[in-house]
Design brief:
Strand order of the largest sheet: 9-8-7-6-2-3-1-10
Radius of gyration: 27 Å
Shape: flat
Oligomer: single chain
Helix content: 40-55%
Number of strands: 10
Distance between the termini: 71 Å
Length: 278
C-alpha cells in the first residue's frame, strides 16, 4: 500500500470486534480475526470482519488458518467485492506474536492492515490504531519486520449513522430497549440540528461584520457556494411545499396505522372463527 493512503473502518467492524472479545474463552487474553473490505488508489475501506480461533502463550501461537480460509470463502459468496485487507487484534499494542500472524495475512493480501482495538474502553471510547508492515534488514541476510502507524478514520453509511446516533442518545439510560425513531421524529431532530447550524453561521457572519472576528476567505467561499446551491423560492411557495410534504408524511403514518389495525382485526377474527369451529 502506497504511503499516504488512508484506512477507513466502519462502525459495524468495531462493534463486531468488541462482541467477539466479550464472547471469548475465559482463558483467552485477546481475540484476533480477519478484516474484509475494498482497496482503491487512495484508501482501504474495512467493511466487515470475522473472528478466527487461536491460542497463544508466552512462547508460541497457534492460528487456525483453515478456519480463516473457509470463513473467507463463505463471505465471498455473499459479497464477492470484499477481499481480505488485513487482520485485527484486541489489546493496546503490538505483541511479539503479531509478526507471525502478519506473515500469514501477507500471503492473503498485498499489503495487509493490522488494526489494534483497545477493549478497555478508556474514557468511554473505543481506541484503535492501524499499522502497516515494512521489511527491515540487509537483503540476502536476516531480515525483520517493522510496523509503522497509518491514519485510521471511522466512516459509515447513512443506515449506520442512524443506529449510532440512537445508541449515543440512549447511553445514559442503561437497561432500556433502544427503538428506532419514526420519520416524524427524524424530521424534528434534523430541523433542530439545521436550526442550530444556521444560528452558528449567522453569529459568525455578524461577528465578522462587527469586526469582532477575523475574515476568513476560505469560510467565505464555502458560505457563498452554500448560498448558490439553495434554489431561490418565495416564502409562500416554500410554505406550500413544506405543508404539502408534511401532509404527505402524516397521510403515510395514518395509512400505516390503518393497515396495522386491519391486520390485527383480521387476526382476531381468524382466531375467533377457529375457536368456534373446534
Amino acid at each position: 500500500m502506497a504511503d499516504g493512503r488512508k484506512v477507513k473502518v466502519h462502525p459495524v467492524v468495531l462493534f463486531s470486534i468488541i462482541d467477539s472479545y466479550e464472547r471469548r474463552k475465559e482463558d483467552a487474553k485477546r481475540v484476533i480475526g480477519s478484516l474484509l473490505g475494498t482497496v482503491d488508489a487512495n484508501s482501504v475501506t474495512i467493511t466487515n470482519s470475522f473472528c478466527v480461533p487461536h491460542t497463544e502463550s508466552e512462547d508460541e501461537v497457534a492460528f487456525d488458518m483453515e478456519f480463516a480460509r473457509n470463513m473467507f470463502d463463505l463471505h465471498r459468496r455473499v459479497n464477492p467485492r470484499e477481499v481480505i485487507v488485513g487482520w485485527y487484534a484486541t489489546g493496546q499494542d503490538i505483541t511479539e506474536h503479531s509478526v507471525l500472524i502478519h506473515e500469514y495475512y501477507s500471503r492473503e493480501s498485498k499489503s495487509p492492515v493490522h488494526l489494534v482495538v483497545d477493549t478497555d474502553l478508556k474514557d468511554t471510547e473505543i481506541g484503535f490504531k492501524g499499522f502497516l508492515s515494512a521489511t527491515v534488514g540487509v537483503p540476502g541476510k536476516t531480515q525483520g519486520m517493522m510496523f509503522t502507524p497509518v491514519p485510521v478514520v471511522v466512516e459509515y453509511y447513512n443506515a449506520e449513522r442512524v443506529g449510532i446516533d440512537r445508541i449515543r442518545n440512549r447511553t445514559q439510560s442503561r437497561g432500556n430497549l433502544i427503538s428506532l425513531p419514526t420519520e416524524f421524529e427524524n424530521v424534528l431532530d434534523m430541523t433542530k440540528t439545521l436550526q442550530t447550524m444556521l444560528e452558528g453561521v449567522s453569529d459568525h457572519v455578524n461577528n465578522v461584520l462587527a469586526g469582532s472576528a477575523p475574515v476568513d476567505q476560505k469560510i467565505g467561499r464555502y458560505l457563498m457556494d452554500l448560498v448558490c446551491t439553495v434554489p431561490h423560492m418565495e416564502e409562500d411557495e416554500f410554505d406550500d411545499m413544506l405543508n404539502s410534504n408534511i401532509n404527505d408524511l402524516l397521510m403515510m403514518r395514518y395509512l400505516g396505522n390503518v393497515v396495522k389495525s386491519q391486520v390485527a382485526l383480521n387476526e382476531k377474527l381468524i382466531n375467533t372463527s377457529t375457536i368456534q369451529t373446534t
